[in-house]
Amino acid sequence: DKFKSGLTKTRDNFTVKVNNLVARYRKIDEDFFEELEEILIQADVGFQTVMGLIDELKMEVKRKNIKEPSEVQSAISEKLVEIYTAGEKSPNRLNIQEGSLTVILFVGVNGVGKTTTIGKLAYMLKQQGKKVMMAAGDTFRAGAIEQLEVWGDRVGVEVIKHTEGSDPAAVMYDAIQAAKARKADVLLCDTAGRLQNKVNLMKELEKVKRVIGREIPGAPHEVLLVLDATTGQNAMVQAKTFKEATDVTGIVLTKLDGTAKGGIVLAIRNELQIPVKFVGLGEKMDDLQPFDAEKYVYGLFS
Ligand code: GDP
């Protein structure tokens, strides 16, 4: 199971520690909760989320009259899933328009895995029988257009591009005309990952979105922010900045296979109220998975 093997590092760090904790304690007391708190913080679950979780666990222990530390384990899993899903049925579902063109915009800083994610998602959608196209909207970074083309070739998807340095909004306009003409189902749009200047970032994204929305009312249907899980709290800072710059509808958390601190998924969801729609669990074409909180949490503890 890809999901499970991709989480090996987090399982080795987090789950093993929780298991040890539960085995060491005879009764549930303040010390037990303090150690649990520390383990959760170290797994990057995030301070705010950990505090809420510990409070709820304490209440649960009282309410259910739990005496054995081993019984707390299932309560921890339940609470983690609860925090994540927050009452929503399928927060991870993509907003795909059946029978008309769906436009998905990708945002995020350089190096987080944006291009790779676009390639992987193109592959996944193609496997589902959809006609997919890509727009090379990162006209700023040297090599970005070529890199997207490599993925386009690999997956067998057409890439619409202009030359380096050209206006990304013009690329989007052309890509939409081409996607309409070819009767594509989904257009995946790359953007430049400049974060140094928030005002510029905001302006560029606004213009791109305006052009897309003018050609297709209601589009872009998704704005997916790509974040690198291995950067921990730095990813949280990026998420906050992008959330201020544009309406982010979902997150793709990459390189979850490369971190022992997979708790960042929960922190993002809980502190930013943005659903994690996909996770990256490797560098290959089929290493992108829709994020499923239950599978994730129970995968950690099984
Ligand atoms: P971009 O600058 O945001 O477009 O980033 P790239 O797509 O070029 O990715 C940067 C590096 O991260 C590349 O070496 C990718 O192979 C690698 N990468 C992307 N996603 C994942 C992932 O989920 N897991 C691992 N292990 N590596 C990844």
TrEMBL record:
<dbReference type="GO" id="GO:0005737">
    <property type="term" value="C:cytoplasm"/>
</dbReference>
<dbReference type="InterPro" id="IPR013822">
    <property type="entry name" value="Signal_recog_particl_SRP54_hlx"/>
</dbReference>
<dbReference type="GO" id="GO:0005525">
    <property type="term" value="F:GTP binding"/>
</dbReference>
<comment type="function">
    <text>Involved in targeting and insertion of nascent membrane proteins into the cytoplasmic membrane. Acts as a receptor for the complex formed by the signal recognition particle (SRP) and the ribosome-nascent chain (RNC).</text>
</comment>
<dbReference type="InterPro" id="IPR003593">
    <property type="entry name" value="AAA+_ATPase"/>
</dbReference>
<dbReference type="GO" id="GO:0003924">
    <property type="term" value="F:GTPase activity"/>
</dbReference>
<keyword id="KW-0472">Membrane</keyword>
<dbReference type="GO" id="GO:0006614">
    <property type="term" value="P:SRP-dependent cotranslational protein targeting to membrane"/>
</dbReference>
<comment type="similarity">
    <text>Belongs to the GTP-binding SRP family. FtsY subfamily.</text>
</comment>
<feature type="domain" description="SRP54-type proteins GTP-binding">
    <location>
        <begin position="275"/>
        <end position="288"/>
    </location>
</feature>
<feature type="binding site">
    <location>
        <begin position="190"/>
        <end position="194"/>
    </location>
    <ligand>
        <name>GTP</name>
    </ligand>
</feature>
<dbReference type="InterPro" id="IPR036225">
    <property type="entry name" value="SRP/SRP_N"/>
</dbReference>
<comment type="subunit">
    <text>Part of the signal recognition particle protein translocation system, which is composed of SRP and FtsY.</text>
</comment>
<dbReference type="GO" id="GO:0005886">
    <property type="term" value="C:plasma membrane"/>
</dbReference>
<keyword id="KW-0378">Hydrolase</keyword>
<keyword id="KW-0547">Nucleotide-binding</keyword>
<feature type="binding site">
    <location>
        <begin position="108"/>
        <end position="115"/>
    </location>
    <ligand>
        <name>GTP</name>
    </ligand>
</feature>
<keyword id="KW-0675">Receptor</keyword>
<dbReference type="InterPro" id="IPR004390">
    <property type="entry name" value="SR_rcpt_FtsY"/>
</dbReference>
<keyword id="KW-1003">Cell membrane</keyword>
<dbReference type="InterPro" id="IPR027417">
    <property type="entry name" value="P-loop_NTPase"/>
</dbReference>
<protein>
    <recommendedName>
        <fullName>Signal recognition particle receptor FtsY</fullName>
        <ecNumber>3.6.5.4</ecNumber>
    </recommendedName>
</protein>
<dbReference type="InterPro" id="IPR042101">
    <property type="entry name" value="SRP54_N_sf"/>
</dbReference>
<feature type="binding site">
    <location>
        <begin position="254"/>
        <end position="257"/>
    </location>
    <ligand>
        <name>GTP</name>
    </ligand>
</feature>
<dbReference type="InterPro" id="IPR000897">
    <property type="entry name" value="SRP54_GTPase_dom"/>
</dbReference>
<dbReference type="Pfam" id="PF02881">
    <property type="entry name" value="SRP54_N"/>
</dbReference>
<keyword id="KW-0342">GTP-binding</keyword>
<dbReference type="Pfam" id="PF00448">
    <property type="entry name" value="SRP54"/>
</dbReference>
<dbReference type="GO" id="GO:0005047">
    <property type="term" value="F:signal recognition particle binding"/>
</dbReference>
<keyword id="KW-0963">Cytoplasm</keyword>
